[in-house]
Amino acid sequence: MKRKLSKKKLEKMIASDFTDLSTEEIKALIQKEVDKGPDELDTNYIDLCFELLSIKNNDTNKRKIKFTKPAKVLLATAVLMVVFISTITVSAQFNLNIPQKIAQLINGNAEIDYNLENADTTADGYALLDTDLAKQLVDYGITPVTLPEELTKENCEIIKLEDVSVDETWKIISIDFYYNNQEGWLRVEQMSEELETAGVSTVMDIKSGQMINVNGMDIIMFEQDNRCSIIYKDNLTTYDISLDCNLKTAIKIAESIK
User: Fold this and answer.
1) Which residues lie across from 257 on neighbouring strands?
2) Cβ within 8 Å of residue 132, ≥6 positions away
3) What are φ and ψ of residue 225, in 5° steps?
């Protein structure tokens, strides 16, 4: 990208709540700053790019990810996660049936330790490895794979599967799908053991939350306005499902994880 934008120009875009930059152009600005190296990197400039991407993606209705500042040597990896940042604005009434050590209510939102250190995160088994979806994930380097069986049936149509990995140490696969004609999104993220990432992920404006244990793993579910999130982790792999549905449907999907 040839455009060179100053902090002042970025701040004006943020103040107007509008940018004509594409997502790829904003990511290029981030990458250009990251390429300067830890000693010259301007974290404030990257923060402004964060805000621009949030504005750009504010209609995706997915999970907001908020990282604490890691060491600069890890920042080159962490900053690219911002492509998944978005917000939603609905009123919240809480019915949170999740241990406080795993999820906390803060200002109407649920904050979860990004690493799910206090949850059960080891699957008892892998029963769906022969499914097309599991095989595709393995082809992209995600292994082993545990999935909701509901997402492998005929009533679930995979629309797009895209590799948006940062590098070999941080694999990210984004999947768009329709389940019973309802729009959904699945993000599968696998980090290597040597990569340390601190912070929290935040589910905005929740109406209720529930946790169940399936296949040896704690499955966390949040209900928002006509949408639910299902979050769980198996060893180094985190699964984040977002679907236009009610909590009853989310529980049905979660209970089918194998």
Assistant:
1) 148
2) 152
3) -90, 105
Burial of 164 (0-12, 13-18, 19+ CB in 10 A): middle
Cα gap 228→99, rounded to integer Å:
19
Cα separation, 186 vs 208, in Å, equals 20
Before 38, cis peptide (omega within 30)?
no
Whole-number CA gyration radius for the chain: 18
| CA 104 – CA 96 distance, rounded (Å) | 9
Quick one: which H or E segment has residue 16?
Answer: helix 7-16
Comparing CA positions, the residue from 126, 127, 136 lying closest to residue 186 is 136
Do residues 231 and 238 touch, judged by C-beta distance below 8 A?
Answer: yes
Name residues whose C-beta falls within 8 Å of residue 137's C-beta, 6 or more positions apart in sequence.
143, 145, 173, 188
Beta bridge partners of 223: 208, 228
Of 139, 134, 112, nearest to 123 by C-alpha is 134
Measured distance CA(59)–CA(231) in Å, rounded: 20
Q: Torsion over CA of 150, 154, 157 and 162, rounded to 10 degrees? A: 70
Contact 100, 209 (CB under 8 A): no
pLDDT band (50, 70, 90) for residue 91: very low
Rounded to two decimals, the pTM is 0.66
The number of residues making up the chain comes to: 258
27-44 residue pLDDT tens: 778 778 777 766 677 777
C-alpha torsion sign, points 50, 51, 53, 59: positive
